[in-house]
Amino acid sequence: MSVPSSGPAPLPGGAGAGRPAISPASSQELLRAVDARREDAVALLAELVSIDSTNPNFIGVDRPAVIGGETRCNEVLLEHYEQAGLETHWVARDPERRNLVGVRRAAASRDNASGSPSPVAGRSLILNGHIDTVAAVEPDRWLCGSPWKAEVRDGRLFGLGSTDMKGGCTAMWLAAQALSDLDLKLAGELQLHSVVGEETMEHELGTRACVRAGFRADAAIVTEPASLPEPLTISPIAAGNWHFRIEIDGLATHCGNRALAIRPGGAGDTIGVNALEKAVKIVNWLQELEQQWGFSKSHPYFMPGFFTLLPGVFHSDPGVPVPYYFSNRAEIQYSCWYPPGQPAADVAAEIEQFVLAACKLDPWLAARPPRFEWVNNWPPASTPWEHDVVQTLVQAHEAATGRPVPPPSPAHPVAFGAASDASFLEDEGIPSVVYGPGDLRVAHCRDESIDLDEVVLAAKSLALCVLEWCGAAP
Ligand SMILES: [Zn+2]
């Protein structure tokens, strides 16, 4: 676990790393080059949003109806990558779901005396974005008539995936295009990864597949919508997420036996036990644990009380959807955020032990404890705030926005409020930070939208960061 820096941020890279410093003039030129491509960027984003690239493995999605959408988006991006002078590569563990990698090679330099290639002086960087989306929420009720009808209203582009995260994918291209328009040569390699399968944690098909195909770098920026506490928050850290299921047994009986089952003088549990009400007890107990976590779990990069337990699915019925029987089975599914640095297994054990201890208060549950299934763990992400790539991005963001970035603290939390592929890039040994346009509060919602100014602003920071991190070739 990292701690916030107390002093001024160390100056990263640049001339200190043996490369020519980026002149303020070329920075200003780069910002203007991004602005000059604004309309192209809006057109690209609209085209990407108009293609249905719903993740084919998303729960409830008809795979044959949507398969190929991710690849079609990447085919559109391929044309744009090539226009930006990037070398393009397909990476496809699943031929129906192709990742696109664009590479801007480090400028070749030859040693003057020997004529042999000299070592590359710059550092390499990946810009990573996912091209899949979640399934559309209430597709018949979208403001613009359809989730895939991209429409600009009041400076915002509406449509599924606009915020999460075709806006980020567009900003990545816009940054690369601006560098190309100025014919700026980089001392280190820049890679753009447009990946599939993020929304269902299919990192083996998407982000990891690209890295394992050899597209590695010294650091990565994942351009997800890091929007809290303010737009374009630099987020080098994210919580882990456990998805778990609890199953509770009851004993079915006719509703006419209700009094016998619950009133003094009746036969109690031998007549019937309503699993639904036992499950409600468990929800209440886990709300108690969640309250305790508000005090027991904290991290200086997160807002106070971030680590929570959400009961997102609750199901109980007696086998038919009518209320005339006691339910003999209930199921609750949770999504739980836990702090980086805490082993996932410890968090799971803590939750299980808390519930099982509380169950001792209830004779039925004490005798028939609920069953836990630990469905899926999305690991946390954590790169230190002091890391060069984070500090380079801080400087780039300050230069692009004209606003200082305060050091992280509970008052200025910098944690990304969702899961992302940064976790898997870090697991591959690539320090990563989340930074991109969009607003998490409108992601996975009806009428998802993005502020177009933010897409352009993100591209400016990204372009400056690439130039500073990779270095300008002499
Ligand atoms: Zn996303």
Query: How would you sum up the global shape?
Result: elongated
Rg of Cα set:
26 Å
CATH-defined topology of the largest domain: Aminopeptidase
Poorly predicted ranges = 1-20
Notable characteristics:
474 residues; alpha/beta; Aminopeptidase; Alpha-Beta Plaits; 2 domains; six-stranded mixed β-sheet; binds zinc ion
Write the layout of secondary structure elements.
Layout: H1 24-36, H2 38-50, H3 63-66, H4 69-83, E1 87-94, E2 97-104, E3 125-130, E4 151-153, E5 156-158, H5 162-181, E6 190-195, H6 207-212, E7 219-222, E8 237-238, E9 240-249, H7 258-262, H8 275-296, E10 309-316, E11 329-338, H9 344-359, H10 363-367, E12 371-378, E13 381-382, H11 388-401, E14 415-416, H12 422-427, E15 432-434, E16 449-451, H13 452-470
Parallel strand pairs: 3-6, 3-7, 7-15, 8-14
Antiparallel strand pairs: 1-2, 2-6, 4-5, 5-16, 8-13, 9-11, 9-12, 10-11
The structure holds zinc ion.
Structural write-up:
This protein is α/β, with parallel strands linked by helices. It folds into two domains: 315 residues, Aminopeptidase; 139 residues, Alpha-Beta Plaits (2-Layer Sandwich). Helix content is 33%, strand content 18%. The strands form four sheets. The protein has a six-stranded mixed sheet with strand order 1-2-6-3-7-15. A four-stranded antiparallel sheet has the order 10-11-9-12, covered by helices on one side. Helix 2 packs antiparallel against helix 5. It is elongated and about 90 Å long. The two termini are 38 Å apart. Bound molecules: zinc ion. Zinc ion binds next to helix 5.
